[in-house]
């Protein structure tokens, strides 16, 4: 990061992880010997220790998180804010701590394997091109569209799988989030696009998985063991 640039990351960890099952929200589940959220925060610190990190937690989970940070001696500096009912509301709460002149990345805590290269590329494109940028990868499966009569084949060449971090000039994204929630707002690009922000696609990473199910937790453990032996 060039010194005069102000890069901030909002790591959204405000969900409950229902699709994993169990009581503990997935971002606090240990993978590779420490809670998933610590891996994700570490990824941004490893990219550049000067990035300001804001972590959005589920309401009431700050004591648990502080206990985990003490237990694991996790000392990377970050600011905590509580999230809301949906990812949209959590991002909105995080943005309340961001000033207009910053470049901001929104990243899922559930994507702990994001690389420094992808983080840096997203920040730099958003800064240099003054627009939104999101990582995408190809859809390699056949896909079908549901219809009233059942379903029909869809052209996978017209589709991309969207990831995070999603980066924007903060002034633009804050203005876009000054709106009411819509169910279509499953990521930040969907909010930005409706407000007219230009969105650039950049190559994502197959390894940048979103840990969503119990199987993904096992996959994440396996992947970390594989990385430790490389
Ligand atoms: N109200 C919410 C919902 C989600 N997230 C975050 O957004 C990211 C992507 O969401 P998802 O993978 O769906 O996480 P959960 O909502 O926790 O999962 P589930 O839908 O299974 O409950 C996660 O890091 C999650 O913590 C958030 O900050 N606030
Ligand atoms: C933001 C995201 O990870 C991009 O693919 C995805 O939209 C999150 O969806 P979720 O249902 O909140 O996991």
UniProtKB/TrEMBL annotation:
The keyword Signal does not apply. The record marks 156, 210 as: Positions MEP for the nucleophilic attack. It is an enzyme of class 2 (transferase). Pathway: Isoprenoid biosynthesis; isopentenyl diphosphate biosynthesis via DXP pathway; isopentenyl diphosphate from 1-deoxy-D-xylulose 5-phosphate: step 2/6. The record marks 19, 26 as: Transition state stabilizer. CDD domains: CDP-ME_synthetase. InterPro entries: IspD, IspD/TarI, IspD/TarI_cytidylyltransf_bact, ISPD_synthase_CS, Nucleotide-diphossugar_trans. One of its GO terms (molecular function) is 2-C-methyl-D-erythritol 4-phosphate cytidylyltransferase activity. Catalyzes the formation of 4-diphosphocytidyl-2-C-methyl-D-erythritol from CTP and 2-C-methyl-D-erythritol 4-phosphate (MEP). This is 2-C-methyl-D-erythritol 4-phosphate cytidylyltransferase. It comes from Fermentimonas caenicola.
């Amino acid at each position: 990061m060039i010194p005069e640039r102000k890069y901030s990351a909002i790591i959204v960890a405000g969900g409950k992880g229902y699709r994993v099952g169990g009581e503990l929200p997935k971002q606090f589940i240990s993978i590779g010997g420490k809670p998933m959220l610590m891996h994700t925060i570490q990824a941004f610190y490893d990219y550049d220790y000067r990035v300001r990190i804001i972590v959005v937690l589920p309401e009431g989970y700050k004591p648990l998180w502080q206990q985990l940070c003490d237990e694991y001696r996790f000392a990377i500096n970050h600011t905590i804010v509580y999230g809301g009912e949906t990812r949209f509301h959590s991002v909105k709460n995080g943005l309340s701590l961001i000033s207009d002149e910053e470049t901001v990345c929104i990243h899922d805590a559930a994507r702990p394997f994001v690389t420094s290269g992808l983080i840096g590329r997203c920040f730099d494109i958003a800064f240099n091109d003054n627009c939104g940028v999101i990582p995408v990868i190809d859809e390699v499966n056949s896909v079908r569209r549901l219809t009233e009569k059942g379903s029909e084949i869809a052209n996978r060449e017209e589709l991309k799988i969207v990831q995070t971090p999603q980066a924007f000039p903060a002034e633009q994204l804050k203005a876009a989030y000054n709106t009411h929630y819509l169910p279509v707002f499953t990521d930040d690009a969907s909010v930005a696009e409706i407000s007219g922000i230009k969105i650039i696609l950049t190559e994502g990473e197959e390894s940048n998985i979103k840990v969503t199910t119990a199987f993904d937790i096992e996959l994440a453990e396996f992947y970390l063991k594989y990385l430790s032996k490389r």
